[in-house]
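Predict the 3D structure for this chain.
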Amino acid sequence: MPRALLTDNKIFAAFFKPLFDALNRAVHTRQCNELPDQHWLELGVTRILMESPSARGFLQQFGPNFQSYSYVWFYFESIKSNRRLLLADELNDSICENGVKKVNHNYAYKRMR
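Done. Predicted structure below.
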């Protein structure tokens, strides 16, 4: 599947890997040809990371980097989606749960003493 933004870059691909792994296990997904969930996540996370005062400013500044400029309109429409809100919550929980499982709590506790 082609990427919406910058994740063809190896660093971005590694950064997004936990999110996309969680997406593959997610329940609140569906096929959306206008703006696939993976691209929606890339847009949202990249929006947070880039310095831009507004979503509209972000899309104006970085829109030319998108493989499909039609994502701009669908991005604003998708913000209203209850399903995508549920998906974001589900992915957040999944990533947090998996991250917590990987922490060696005994080691961390001993280091705090």
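The chain is about 65% helix and 0% strand.
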